[in-house]
Automatic annotation (TrEMBL), chains A, B:
Its EC number is 1.1.1.87. Keywords: Amino-acid biosynthesis, Lysine biosynthesis, Magnesium, Metal-binding, NAD, Oxidoreductase, Phosphoprotein. This is homoisocitrate dehydrogenase. Belongs to the isocitrate and isopropylmalate dehydrogenases family.
Amino acid sequence: RTLRIGLIPGDGIGREVIPAGRKVLESLPSSLNLKFSFVDLDAGFGTFQKTGTALPDKTVDTLKKECDGALFGAVSSPSTKVAGYSSPIVALRKKLDLYANVRPVRTTVGSSRGNPIDLVTVRENTEDLYVKEERTIEGPDGKVAEAIKRISERASFRIATIAGEIALSRQAIRDAAPGTSTRTQPMVTITHKSNVLSQTDGLFRETARKALSAEKFSSIHVEEQIVDSMVYKLFRQPEYYDVIVAPNLYGDILSDGAAALVGSLGLVPSANVGDNFAIGEPCHGSAPDIEGLGISNPIATFRSVALMLEFLGEANAAAKIYTAVDGNLDDGKFLTPDMGGKATTQQVLDDVLKRL
Amino acid sequence: RTLRIGLIPGDGIGREVIPAGRKVLESLPSSLNLKFSFVDLDAGFGTFQKTGTALPDKTVDTLKKECDGALFGAVSSPSTKVAGYSSPIVALRKKLDLYANVRPVRTTVGSSRGNPIDLVTVRENTEDLYVKEERTIEGPDGKVAEAIKRISERASFRIATIAGEIALSRQAIRDAAPGTSTRTQPMVTITHKSNVLSQTDGLFRETARKALSAEKFSSIHVEEQIVDSMVYKLFRQPEYYDVIVAPNLYGDILSDGAAALVGSLGLVPSANVGDNFAIGEPCHGSAPDIEGLGISNPIATFRSVALMLEFLGEANAAAKIYTAVDGNLDDGKFLTPDMGGKATTQQVLDDVLKRL
Ligand SMILES: CC(C)[C@H](C(=O)O)[C@@H](O)C(=O)O
Ligand SMILES: CC(C)[C@H](C(=O)O)[C@@H](O)C(=O)O
């Protein structure tokens, strides 16, 4: 099988980690019978400055027509408002209907906390306040701006469904490796603020409950948490959680909070997942402060490559990458500065390639 | 001076901690020349079940006409949607125009983290998604619900202004007690998500910057953080922050996150502050699981009593309470179960009264 992968480095260190991710794909063992072809695509603030658009039509078209999946680096946000600029990753998620943003975090050697953490946030990726329908009026007391938060039954149902499926497949992995986890039952925690937003978040809550009450999910323990309590609990007992499903904005916030629990953002991957497409995307930003120094941590990208492969049905190839990355981290000899090490991006890449 | 205080215990353990808070006020040393009179007022889910409204007009009227301040306990949220019910504290904040929700957290003995944390979140308390303007339509793919997020220049300006004032008064307290803190300059961090919500959160950001650029705030270091990064940073380096100012919903989430950093929610106070009124409110909820056991932690309420007094211009009385509470915690002999102790609410109260 040959997979065609779009490469969208974006800005800043995106241009350092995405080429490293490509190398990992190219170096997968031939026994996997998996080949890759690549196409380079533009997006980001740099692209906006050159062409007037942060997400050229050509990028979207090529992804739609030619590609099976993609890797996205990071984009810089302008520090003051720039007319006409808006985030290309947010637009891409919507245009390709990549309705789930999946962000697993696990305790690793670099982590400062005691108990093992192994959870995934499954964030709705197409609506909520990210519909970006805003307006501003000039009132008697100055400006008043409004934004629409939109929650649909359809999007809530499918995000809860994929959260349920992810919970089942995580349990299957645990069952296949007895002794690696004390968790015996999959769990999904529905996050919302329906005590204030009874209609929008109320719809999310009810619909998620309905989706997760399907026969195929009968082994799943379903709980819910109000978003503010969820952040509190996430800090106090992160090891308790398995799969957390949330509307777009809460998911954005919760997944950054979860990343903080396991050390550097440079470790945390994500995948933007639709029915037939997946984009791997490291959770870190474009990090202009270290751009060009060759010391950006490529681990989040490697894991995002693996996550993309999982959602493209290539779990074996993904497992190879996870194992190689864990080997690198456990060994601890080649770590980038964000992890307290002195290694360069290239050295981490070489070490991971050796372990593939 | 005699202050008239409305007592609104609400539901659950609110009915245990508010009477304890009243006792603290009644027991303040007479040298302070401060007297109190009290009026009991209804609100909450229990009130809703009895009367059909969670916030009787009489409660609002009495607060407006007779009272200088109030103490609010907690309210239970129904576990499923109940027609006609909506949170009385959210309504109260709006009806009394208590536009700032102030939540200080400090490291105490009970905390599990190393570095000292001493920060306060200043949350806008009257608008954002809390305007609760929602509607639901039946579309071709099922229900679609929308909520309005409203951000005004006026509310953003005044919340940033009070955040600046709080930053200055915190610095004055530090300056008056040299050696207690390494912070030499007040700092305010503006939190928003203007990279996605350029109009609403953009307005908050710009207006807060404008408010904080006033001459009187020239000693303040002003920074900003996107809300997801803010949660990440709050977990990674909480000791860095001083005053965090945020729109309503982000403030709700951030203040719970901050509370998690310093141990039990049972320690964290808040005040709902308007131009001439303040309501002290512990951050914890109604805790139905421990209701009636007499073991609820009254510390958050005592600190909320003190915070209310500060905003009513009685900083000396407030300081007495803070010192008594810190004495109780440092001593560690009378701690409630949430703090790992075995003391009852009454024992903690008695211990704090002795220290007043
Ligand atoms: C850059 C920003 C628009 C984006 C988001 O809010 O989704 C980022 O925070 C993320 O989580 O991928
Ligand atoms: C109970 C709820 C409506 C309330 C809020 O969201 O403001 C609570 O979380 C708080 O922070 O006081």
